[in-house]
Automatic annotation (TrEMBL):
Name of this protein: Beta-glucosidase
InterPro entries the UniProt entry points to: GH, GH_1_N_CS, Glyco_hydro_1, Glyco_hydro_1_beta-glucosidase
Enzyme Commission code(s) on record: 3.2.1.21
Classification via Gene3D superfamilies: Glycosidases
Pfam families: Glyco_hydro_1
Catalytic activity of the protein: Hydrolysis of terminal, non-reducing beta-D-glucosyl residues with release of beta-D-glucose
Swiss-Prot/TrEMBL keywords: Carbohydrate metabolism, Cellulose degradation, Glycosidase, Hydrolase, Polysaccharide degradation
Entry similarity comment: Belongs to the glycosyl hydrolase 1 family.
Hydrolase recorded as keyword: yes
GO MF term set: beta-glucosidase activity
The keyword Translocase appears for this protein: no
Length: 458
């Protein structure tokens, strides 16, 4: 196949998230998060796994920075743990927590790696959840205060900031069908959570601007949605509304999606959480939009799972996913179809035009059933092929005129994979959780070589 090529200045990076890698959940004043509470509930997480020990990144971060340096990435995307910085979600900052991230930033810079901070990757302080969490408008204001605290400590050295990572998961998995923390199953309250997450983003953008950050934006996990048959087109629009438009329309056009009434029906009619002045805050100009992408969605029409609107959750929108029997599926049972990433990026470019800021692919990768072989090496051929295909898709989007500025592989390390516990491995570095031994996989070496060739040409 043709050699992959990207323009000068294109950013190659890798990412992790605080709760998935740090461990040390009771160390140096860190407060409890909704994921600590969720993991403690029997049956919520596979194997009864928790955020301990994760990858012990809180102690082993110099080793992980060295892995990044050897990989050759230009940027490392990591998240800050809100309860590590503000143990109850507000009030006085925990100096030990801020100092940890300051040391990490300095270590990255010393290694020639640009730090990229995500403020929220799902670990809401439990104290705020006790007051309603993202269902409560006040949480958006507490988030802006938290953003100001972190930016006050790190903005002098961190150029790129993301407010929220995948608010769809926070709203609809956390408060809709209850699959993620805090494990709430609801209808209208989940839509309130979605709105307050967007409001929190807008308020945090103001706090970041006030702190003088260079680049700020949000990261969305967007779907490339296609109908199974032409007759399923209305179902596909409902799927796009739930997954994409509920975020992109307010953020990029300053309006709510026209298709929301057909998508949520009585649930959206009962809303009283939107206020005058919210949309201008939400639609504040961004310097970039992060796109997380793993697998496409093919959908068909389906009846409501719950006929009674009073009992219906916000993900019950009269569509169902169709499994593609022709595609290879990852260990997550996600279909592999790289060109759909190119199609999604091109669709965004064509749909939003000048309103669309530059894009970063902020997460992309695959979970595979891999382990060190007898030779001690992890030969993750399927992951390497996955990364190659999706990077070709990014190159195809660039060739089509889409302004894509960078790509972050997910993930640097095998880690805690939320409700799957430690049973799913996304890393380009294998982690033996019993010993914390790190073993770079073949995909790590493939990605390093790609970055090296790009650097030599730039």
């Amino acid at each position: 196949m043709a050699e992959l090529s990207f323009p000068p200045g294109f950013v190659f990076g890798a990412g992790t998230a605080a709760f998935q890698v740090e461990g040390a959940t009771r160390t140096d004043g860190r407060g409890p998060s909704i994921w600590d509470a969720f993991c403690a509930e029997p049956g919520r997480v596979a194997g009864g796994d928790t955020g301990e020990p994760a990858c012990e990144h809180y102690r082993r971060w110099p080793q992980d920075v060295e892995l990044l340096r050897r990989l050759g990435v230009g940027s490392y995307r990591f998240s800050v743990s809100w309860p590590r910085v503000l143990p109850t979600g507000a009030g006085k900052a925990n100096r030990a927590g801020l100092d940890f991230y300051s040391r990490l930033v300095d270590g990255l810079l010393a290694a020639g790696i640009e730090p990229a901070v995500t403020l929220y990757h799902w670990d809401l302080p439990q104290s705020l959840e006790d007051g309603g969490g993202w269902r409560a408008r006040e949480t958006a204001h507490r988030f802006a205060e938290y953003a100001a605290v972190v930016a006050g400590a790190l903005a002098d050295r961190v150029p790129r900031w993301t407010t929220l990572n995948e608010p769809w998961c926070s709203a609809f998995l956390g408060y809709g069908n209850g699959v993620h923390a805090p494990g709430v199953r609801s209808g209208t309250p989940a839509l309130a959570a979605a709105h307050h997450l967007l409001l929190g983003h807008g308020l945090a953008m103001g706090a970041l601007r006030a702190a003088g950050v260079r680049e700020a934006g949000i990261t969305l996990n967007l779907d490339h949605v296609t109908p199974a048959t032409p007759a399923d087109a209305p179902a596909a629009l409902r799927a796009r509304t739930q997954r994409n438009l509920v975020w992109t329309e307010p953020l990029l056009r300053g309006r709510y999606p026209a298709s929301e009434a057909d998508t949520w029906g009585e649930l959206i009619e009962r809303q009283d959480f939107r206020r005058d002045g919210d949309l201008p805050l939400i639609a504040a100009p961004m310097d970039f939009l992060g796109v997380n992408y793993y697998t496409p969605a093919t959908v068909r029409a389906a009846p409501h799972r719950e006929p009674d609107p009073a009992r219906r959750d916000a993900t019950d929108n009269r569509f169902a996913h169709v499994r593609d029997p022709r595609a290879r599926h990852t260990a997550m049972d996600w279909a592999v179809a790289p060109d759909t990433l190119r199609a999604l990026l091109v669709d965004l470019h064509e749909e939003y035009g000048p309103a669309l800021p530059p894009l970063f692919v902020t997460e992309n990768g695959s979970a595979e059933d891999d382990a060190p072989g007898p030779d001690g090496v992890v030969h993750d051929t399927d992951r390497t092929a996955y990364l190659d295909g999706h990077l070709r898709a990014v190159a195809g989007a660039l060739a089509a005129g889409v302004d894509v500025r960078g790509y972050y592989v997910w993930s640097l390390l095998d880690n805690f994979e939320w409700t799957y516990g430690y049973g799913k491995r996304f890393g380009v570095v294998h982690v033996d959780y019993a010993t914390q031994r790190r073993t770079p996989k073949d995909s790590y070496h493939w990605y390093r070589e790609l970055i090296s060739r790009h650097s030599a040409r730039s």
